Amino acid sequence: MAPRISRLRPLLDQIQRTQRRAASQAASEVSAIRPENGTVIFSGIQPTGIPHLGNYLGALQNWKRLQNEAEPGTKLLYSIVDLHAITLPQQAPMLRQWKREMLAALLAVGLDPERSSIFYQSSVPGHSELMWILSCTASMGYLSRMTQWKSKLHLADDVSALDEKAKASLKLGLFSYPVLQAADILVHRATHVPVGEDQRQHLEFARECATNFNHTFGAGSRLLVPPETILSPAKRIMSLQTPTSKMSKSDTDPRSRILLTDSADEIRKKIMAAKTDSAANAVSYDRTGRPGVSNLLELWASFDAAGRSPEALAAGMAEGKGSLKDLKVQVADVLVEEIPPIGERYRAFLERDGGRYLDEVEARGAAVAIANAAETMEIVKRAVGLSN
Ligand code: TYM
């Protein structure tokens, strides 16, 4: 009996680890908080193009809500993560332009530099400095199980970092991307991180880095703060053309996403061309059975002034015998009201003061972030033995 159990031990351990991870994940996710004194909100977005509806509904809208509901004493830090962007090849002039455009887009969605510090990640040295220190305790095994580097390189989920196929294309920066993301969060002692669902695994890793560090260098005391994830109700907006995949900046089909700078005309065309299904011409909400129809209902629900759920909107459409085309017209109408004003503000911010306004906003945000990160780095360096 004993040898059999010992052979099963690795499997049992793995099941237990998965269960523990699921439990800690459930415990650490909150959908809504009212930020109060002592709360530190941090999040980031890559400057790899104009943000789309997925970024907006999955993250940016929540960034704005948290800012607007924050009580005095709450710190709000939002970073344009340019160091993450270069984990894949970028053209230097394009990257420079995208950084500015992202800054203008964040202001256009409603971030207010009087309340939120908005800054480029590369302006704050603490991010990369802490990343190096965390790299010295981060497990290669854990990192190689993470899925993002595999999906970015179009590799299968079961590929290992040492496989020939991976070794040929995998760069160290892309492999260690989650360590930099953990450093982004931990260097600011963030208590809450509003993100879309695709970032869940990275947030779990950041918590693991914090606990690991505290255990190794602080005898368990809270030197670094394990953050909580804040997910919005629209945590995963799907592509308009392949509704089983998430809406993404890197999708080669521009009709798959609605950009925050799209005109009313572009929005209508993209929504009317959205893939649904031929199961029925009636509207119903079923995320797995009818992903295209359900995605449209979720888009509508996200902007519904009456706060109706996708299920309630589907029931209303079914009652009025609305067709899939009627649904698309309805969704397009709602989006056309909400999105083009963001584009107008975006263009105005880009041009304000001949571009100097954006530089000032960033410089002010970076100054706050540099000071905040320096406080943590002092604690970290002392704990590790790098300073007295
Ligand atoms: P990025 O730039 O891919 O996306 C920015 C935010 O948008 C969310 N998002 C979505 N939400 C719902 N549906 C979608 N289709 C969708 N697509 C994107 C993302 O979840 C994210 O919240 N690794 C991060 C950037 C990052 C970061 C951080 C985030 C770097 N350091 C620290 C939080 C904390 C990324 O690539 O996001």
From TrEMBL:
Q: Which Pfam families match?
A: tRNA-synt_1b
**Where is the protein situated, by its record's location annotation?**
Mitochondrion matrix
Q: Does the keyword Transferase apply?
A: no
A Gene Ontology CC term for this entry? Answer: mitochondrial matrix
Report the family membership: Belongs to the class-I aminoacyl-tRNA synthetase family.
Concerning NCBIfam families, the annotation shows:
trpS
- Tell me what this protein is called: Tryptophan--tRNA ligase, mitochondrial
Give the organism, scientific name: Coniochaeta hoffmannii
What is the organism lineage in this UniProt record? Eukaryota, Fungi, Dikarya, Ascomycota, Pezizomycotina
